[in-house]
Design brief:
Blueprint: H1 7-49, E1 53-54, E2 68-69, H2 79-91, H3 98-108, H4 116-131, H5 139-157, H6 161-180, H7 183-192, H8 202-223, H9 242-273, H10 277-294, H11 303-310, H12 316-335, H13 344-364, H14 372-388, H15 391-402, H16 407-420, H17 438-449, H18 457-461, E3 466-467, E4 473-480, E5 500-506, E6 509-511, E7 524-529, H19 531-547, E8 558-559
Antiparallel strand pairs: 1-2, 3-4, 4-7, 4-8, 5-6, 5-7
Length: 561
């Protein structure tokens, strides 16, 4: 039998595998993104053109910073609600935002099979929704591509569950890097967005960097390298204005809290009404279509209008209007469960909110005006930081676009917004700490079991609570294996789904069982479960053995305090 490789060589081999497959996933995402985004541009020209309207498009996407309006064809406004309903019907959403679904998938600690037909439906749903002008981001469609790419790469490389989850997040970083033309900043965002407060997924960071850079390299080679937004040169703000950026961060945090509470309340009340999902989406689509008749900045992801704002081509009244309309319309599409990316709207709302505040300050104190452009850039970072809990990633993203001249205002505002804002975010799937993530429970258990020569396994595991996915506290427990389990595997015995068998203590050694490991006499079975559920399970076992008239075999279950 071949001897196992030494640890250092095995570790290097695993690292090399992750480098290879992270880059491979990035290449696939880059090619798919170039093709789909090019097709999406044509779809938007056609579908929004039916209504006689073309919003300004970014030069980095091959468009022009000009809005063309002809005679509005009122009947064509039915395109928006019709496409929105079709997208929801195709998507069959559990999470309407694929990034939220990805975060939940990562924390589940599971390896889920990909249904290729469903993935194709979701990509098509995003294509239809964004192509019709629904005011959401392009990243939603491509994140479905990332899920399919990660699964394909994992199957090709026969990756483990933990490696497959890492490749999934790396593929998402590749998508964001392509969409926002900022691969390094987006890799940091993905490593940061998994948790709410003061946590960072370092294991994901390097694969995310490799995948994101590879994707952007392919995309840029095919479509051209350029910053997403063309930011005019700015000077470093004066020191006296720095307190204003602290104030900006606090105001943006309050605005973000109102925004999140409004989305949460709207969705909760709609669910209470038990309305048909397609009817809710249809109503929201009609509202967006009507809004687009009266305000020309409604349709599309809004980045073209943001570019015009940064170039000083919008007057103060237009800036205020764009902020109010974008804020309201984003609430509508979110409450109506429309399909698309919910990352881009945070940037657009924040940019117009910051610019509006800067314009208001200049109106009150005209003698010493502030730079509205800087306020807009900083506002975008602060709002994104507060709504998604990614202060570092948001700072790096806006610094990538604008340069290091405004780095100090960015840091002051984003971290103020992060500190002042609550723990809630747009992504309720985020966890507070690593111990709550199913991706790390096995590591915590392995570390505990690797302690030297325990005499009493339960003594070793005592005071080692494990927090489960929904936020409740489960604890490690142990039972003596019942006689009825002898010779059976964990899949052949009746164990509740809420209780996890994670280890067997046998003859002084610890074994992690799989579906082929049989129980034998003398085993101590280690469980993770809520104390009341473990107690109920113990009572069930005792009752079963009492019916078999074998009371002496019933093991005691100890729950770790």
């Amino acid at each position: 039998m071949r001897a196992p490789l030494p640890f250092r060589f095995r570790n290097r081999l695993e690292t090399s595998r992750m480098v290879l497959y992270s880059a491979l996933a990035g290449v696939l995402v880059g090619v798919a993104s170039a093709l789909l985004l090019s097709a999406l541009d044509h779809a938007q020209d056609y579908l929004m053109g039916l209504a006689g309207y073309h919003p300004p498009s970014l030069p980095s996407r091959g468009g022009v910073l000009m809005a063309f309006e002809g005679n509005i064809r009122w009947w064509a406004l039915l395109v928006i609600p019709a496409c929105a309903v079709l997208a929801v019907w195709l998507y069959k959403p559990v999470h309407i935002d694929p990034l939220a679904e990805t975060i939940e998938h990562y924390h589940s600690g599971e390896s889920r099979p990909v249904q290729w037909r469903l993935q194709l439906q979701r990509i098509l749903a995003g294509f239809i929704s964004i192509g019709a002008g629904v005011p959401l981001g392009r990243e939603g469609m491509l994140l479905s591509v990332a899920q399919a790419t990660a699964h394909l790469t994992s199957r090709f490389g026969s990756l483990s569950k933990s490696e497959a989850r890492t490749i999934l997040m790396a593929s998402c970083a590749a998508v964001l890097g392509v969409v926002f033309h900022a691969p390094l900043a987006c890799a940091v965002i993905i490593a940061e967005i998994l948790y709410r407060r003061n946590e960072f997924e370092f294991e994901v960071l390097m694969p995310a960097v490799l995948s994101s850079v590879a994707a952007y390299a392919i995309y840029g080679t095919l479509m051209g390298f350029s910053p997403l937004l063309d930011i005019p040169p700015v000077e470093t703000p004066s020191y006296w204005s720095m307190p204003l950026y602290l104030l900006l961060g606090a105001i943006i945090a309050g605005l973000a809290n109102v925004y999140l509470q409004a989305i949460r309340t709207l969705r909760r009340n709609l669910r209470k009404l038990r309305l048909n999902l397609l009817f809710v989406t249809l109503t929201g689509g009609v509202a967006v279509a009507l809004c687009s008749v009266f305000f020309d900045g409604t349709l599309g992801d809004g980045l073209g209008w943001t570019q015009l704002n940064f170039m000083g081509m919008l007057d103060d009244l237009s800036v205020y209007q764009h902020f109010m309309v974008r804020f309201m319309v984003t609430l509508i599409v979110s409450g109506a469960f429309m399909i698309g990316g919910y990352f881009t709207p945070q940037l657009v709302i924040g940019a117009f909110a910051g610019a509006s505040l800067g314009a208001a300050i200049n109106a009150v104190f005209p003698a010493d005006p502030v730079n509205v452009l800087v306020f807009g850039l900083v506002g975008a970072a602060a709002f994104l930081s507060s709504t998604t809990n990614i202060p570092l990633g948001a700072t790096l993203l806006l610094a990538t676009w604008s340069g290091e001249e405004i780095l100090i205002p960015l840091v002051l505002s984003t971290f103020t917004a992060y500190a002042v804002g609550g723990v809630y975010s747009l992504y309720v799937e985020q966890k507070n700490v690593r111990a709550e993530s199913g991706a790390h429970i096995s590591n915590i258990v392995t570390e505990a079991l690797s302690q030297p020569a325990p005499q009493d396994l339960m003594e070793l595991l005592r005071n080692q609570p494990v927090t489960v996915l929904q936020g409740d506290t489960e604890q490690i427990s142990g039972i003596e294996v019942p006689e009825a389990w002898y010779g059976k595997t964990k899949g052949e015995v009746d164990i509740p789904d809420t209780i996890l068998v994670f280890a067997i203590a046998r003859e002084g050694k610890i074994h992690v069982p799989n579906n082929k490991t049989p129980f034998i006499a003398g085993d101590q079975v280690m469980l993770i479960g809520e104390p009341q559920e473990v107690s109920a399970f113990r009572e069930t076992l005792a009752a079963q053995q009492a019916q078999q008239q074998q009371p002496g075999d019933a093991g005691d279950t100890e729950v770790v305090a």
